[in-house]
Amino acid sequence: GETMANLESAPPVLEARADKALFVSDFPNISYPLSHDIEAVLRLPIGDAVKRDILHDNAETLLGLLATSG
Fold first, then answer.
1. Which pLDDT tens digit goes with each residue over 8-46?
2. Is the alpha carbon torsion for 48, 19, 58, 20 positive or negative?
3. pTM to 2 decimals?
4. Is the distance from CB of 40 to CB of 4 less than 8 angstroms?
5. How many CB atoms within 10 Å of residue 59?
6. Range list of H helices, 1-70
7. Most buried residue, 18, 33, 68, 69, by most Cβ within 10 Å?
């Protein structure tokens, strides 16, 4: 989609701010498989650690913080 096209121009920012980026989706309210957006992130010219942060680790950290603060 258009959002993913915008994301493809962002690798330098993603590399620099990997600890602040989260993968989000409007699933199940999208007209294509969720894997489409995940695969688009995986195709980006960024390091594997950055991809892992965006797709998993940052959300795990955020949710962990929320779970321990309340």
1. 678 888 899 999 999 988 888 889 999 998 998 999 999
2. negative
3. 0.74
4. yes
5. 14
6. 2-7, 11-16, 34-43, 48-52, 58-69
7. 18
